Amino acid sequence: MAGLFLGRNIRMILMLESETVRIGRGVGIGSLLMIGLLAVPWCLGAEGVTTPDELVARHLDSIGTPQVRQAAKSRVAEGTAEFRILVGGSGRLDGKSALVSEGRKLHFMMKFPNGDYHGERFVSDGSRVQIFTATQQARSIFGEFLRGQDVEIREGLLGGVLSTAWPLLHLEDHKAKLSLAGLKSVDGQQLYEVQYRPKKSVDLQMDLYFDPTTFRHVKSVYWVTVRPSIVNVPGGPESAVPTGGEGVALPSGNSETASARQHESHYRVEERFSEFSTVDGLTLPSHYNLRFTQELQNGQTTSWEWDIKETQISNNVSLDPRNFEVK
Is 320 exposed, middle or buried (0-12, 13-18, 19+ CB in 10 A)? Predict the structure, then answer.
């Protein structure tokens, strides 16, 4: 399938510093009570959530009313995509992105006009996942990693609330276990950390982060340590990492990855979501940042980043079933 197939009316573009309060002798009990009452909202905002269920309920309310959420059966998010190599090579590419979802089904594409690296494409029919090649012949190291650790796609986590497949919208279907780890300092700010564990045990660790004031989902981290006993090493020799070509120089990693079969390696996927706006009554992010990092035991580190700006988000779009075919 060369591209995405939309309905006839839709065209796809692929494309505290803390402050001390000093109270003098003249302050009466009434004033003290007033100060205490004024402090209540702040305390609730920071410490009011004590269970995963409560956090999920507030998170869902941050997206929209139950009626509006339930009415959104499908979604198309189109935008620009910038690919950057942060470690292990050099270069950048500009292209387009498209995230198409319907229920628990997902089709996510990032496309770049480059012969050696034309981008990534992931498809899920709600239970099975297909990872497409990033070159003419092979998947990228990121695609190969996701092929071995596709639970984040199968569970609908990839893309966050941009996708109708977002599992917190219908946890009863996933039967996943959520653990609230409390407030954590992440990227210089306090966020609620929720550990997501699917019904079926997997190696991949999945941590979701929420703003304690708005309860919006702002970050996800998926990580795994691969040891020699694991045979299917993500990003193994069967994955190709192209070199050179039109402003991008990617590391050739096959020999290093082969070495990882005898050592411990670390893999990490990070998603960040920001610049929220309301579309059809739903509060969704328009800025999506995706980063993949692999650290091999021999010292070889590769880090790639895709920065996506959503320019158009459409809900309840008529979609062709071929968007979600997994072969």
Answer: middle
